[in-house]
């Protein structure tokens, strides 16, 4: 399988190359040259365990990784999860399921792809004898999961940019209390969008990126997206046969990576009826799906900080398919968005996508309502997904983080603070972070001194 750039100015590359580079040199995002039709395989995949399904699915895309290596990497990656089902699907009401994605080492859905990606990087370094420097931007969870995916890998260093004061205190501790010399947590002034912009500027300097063997760990990396598709597929296959034809996934959304991973499955022949994009008050995607206009705005801090995003990176991948896989049209639209901050998007399939946006007050009352009704505690991101659930569908809400990561918001809603031993141990460890301006030159100088 070859991978092409959404902007069409990069020669097709293999899976391993696409993963190693992350962002295409022309500034676009990699996508499989063709999407396989997986519908004939679905009956045979029904009873597979999570790791078996993962190996089958990723095997269709990672065609230059030997199958036995892929299996080992997958087993290593999900061996660190604490729930035997890895991604348990919990029925909490008639027609309502929660897909728990927080049983990995950092208690967020990011672990699914970043444990795998960390092991893939480790294997790649062993194969090539080279080191790798991983660069990421985070609004809290990607950074923690990327760092933990790479812990103990001597040939990899991580440089993670996050907005100072805009991630939860425990998310910050997950990134800054590892004690590892090859982990560099960089707190910048500004928002996650500023961090993501700086990161893209750094990758745009090809000489610098090549010289320091930089790789992108955000969901701009295609391995992230594909590894996340697996839990949608696993959940869909777990449902009773009678329910499978009427499913809507409800996805707390920021950078559009997670919901895009789910949507890809539909493009590959899995008959999913709908995707609901659930945002917090940073509602660019909600406005897009209700008005067809993509218009970026200012980022506002919220109770669901990991979704405080107004420039949704993976939207470009979605655009590529909506524009008939025509890179010239993608380039034009991206140029227009860059120049004017907006684009009128008349091609949206609004029968497949729906959306909602929850204010902070609504997040608090949703946490309370879910607890009172189901005795189930959801984190503030997952809470957004409980707004306006469609009663006509079988809804699968993606629970993207463990509530213990956001104790203050939960206490305010239901008067109790969930805890997790994984997080408790971090509270007494020293914090090591670097404060830098949100400027590519300053970050590059920092990386140049510490890259391995
Ligand atoms: C807990 C949580 N929920 C939801 C999201 C949004 O996911 P995405 O950016 O893939 O849309 C994030 C951040 O990515 C997150 O950390
Ligand atoms: N919400 C994310 C932001 C980065 O998203 P990614 O999926 O593109 O890596 C975070 O928690 O950091």
From TrEMBL:
It comes from the Bacteria. Keywords: Amino-acid biosynthesis, Lyase, Pyridoxal phosphate, Threonine biosynthesis. The keyword Amino-acid biosynthesis applies. SUPFAM superfamilies: Tryptophan synthase beta subunit-like PLP-dependent enzymes. Residues 2-78 form the Threonine synthase N-terminal domain. The keyword Amino-acid biosynthesis applies. It catalyses: O-phospho-L-homoserine + H2O = L-threonine + phosphate. InterPro entries: Ser/Thr_deHydtase_PyrdxlP-BS, Thr_synth_N, Thr_synth_N_sf, Thr_synthase-like, Threonine_Synthase, TrpB-like_PALP, TrpB-like_PALP_sf. It is an enzyme of class 4 (lyase). The modification N6-(pyridoxal phosphate)lysine is found at residue 110. Its cofactor is pyridoxal 5'-phosphate. GO terms for biological process: threonine biosynthetic process. Belongs to the threonine synthase family. This is Threonine synthase. It holds the Pfam family PALP. The lineage of its organism: Bacteria, Pseudomonadati, Verrucomicrobiota, Opitutia, Opitutales. PANTHER family: THREONINE SYNTHASE FAMILY MEMBER, THREONINE SYNTHASE-LIKE 2. One of its GO terms (molecular function) is threonine synthase activity. The gene is thrC. Pathway: Amino-acid biosynthesis; L-threonine biosynthesis; L-threonine from L-aspartate: step 5/5.
């Amino acid at each position: 399988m070859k991978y092409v750039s959404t902007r069409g100015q990069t020669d097709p590359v293999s899976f391993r190359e696409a993963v190693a580079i992350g962002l295409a040199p022309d500034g676009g995002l990699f996508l499989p040259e063709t999407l396989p039709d997986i519908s004939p395989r679905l009956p045979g995949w029904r009873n597979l365990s999570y790791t078996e399904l993962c190996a089958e699915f990723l095997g269709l895309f990672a065609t230059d990784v030997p199958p036995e290596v892929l299996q080992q990497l997958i087993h290593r990656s999900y061996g660190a999860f604490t729930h035997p089902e890895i991604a348990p699907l919990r029925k909490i009401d008639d027609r309502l399921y929660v897909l728990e994605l927080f049983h990995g080492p950092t208690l967020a859905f990011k672990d699914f792809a970043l444990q795998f990606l960390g092991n893939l990087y480790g294997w790649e370094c062993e194969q090539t004898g080279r080191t790798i420097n991983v660069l990421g931007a985070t609004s809290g969870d990607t950074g923690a999961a990327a760092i933990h995916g790479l812990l103990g890998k001597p040939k990899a260093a991580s440089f993670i940019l996050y907005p100072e004061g805009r991630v939860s205190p425990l998310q910050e501790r997950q990134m800054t209390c590892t004690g590892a010399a090859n982990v560099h947590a960089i707190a910048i002034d500004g928002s996650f969008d500023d961090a993501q912009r700086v990161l893209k500027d750094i990758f745009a300097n090809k000489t610098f990126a090549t010289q320091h063997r930089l790789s992108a760990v955000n969901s701009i990396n295609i391995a992230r997206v594909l590894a996340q598709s697996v839990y949608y597929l696993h959940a869909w296959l777990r449902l009773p046969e009678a329910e499978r034809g009427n499913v809507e996934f409800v996805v707390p959304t920021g950078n559009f990576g997670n919901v895009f991973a789910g949507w890809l499955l539909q493009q590959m022949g899995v008959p999913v009826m709908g995707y609901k994009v659930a945002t917090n008050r940073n509602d660019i995607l909600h406005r897009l799906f209700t008005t067809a206009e993509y218009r970026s705005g200012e980022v506002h801090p919220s109770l669901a900080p990991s979704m405080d995003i107004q420039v949704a990176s993976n939207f470009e991948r979605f655009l590529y398919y909506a524009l008939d896989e025509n890179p010239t049209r993608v380039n034009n639209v991206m140029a227009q968005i860059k120049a004017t901050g907006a684009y009128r998007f008349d091609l949206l399939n609004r029968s497949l996508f729906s959306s909602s946006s929850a204010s902070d007050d609504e997040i608090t009352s949703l946490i309370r309502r879910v607890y009172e009704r189901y005795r189930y505690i959801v984190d503030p991101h997952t809470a957004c997904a409980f707004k306006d659930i469609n009663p006509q569908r079988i809804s699968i809400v993606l629970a993207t983080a463990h509530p213990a990561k956001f104790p203050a918001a939960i206490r305010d809603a239901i008067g109790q603070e969930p805890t997790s031993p994984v997080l408790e141990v971090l509270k007494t460890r020293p914090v090591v972070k670097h404060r830098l301006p949100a400027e590519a030159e300053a970050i590059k100088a920092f990386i140049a001194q510490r890259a391995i």
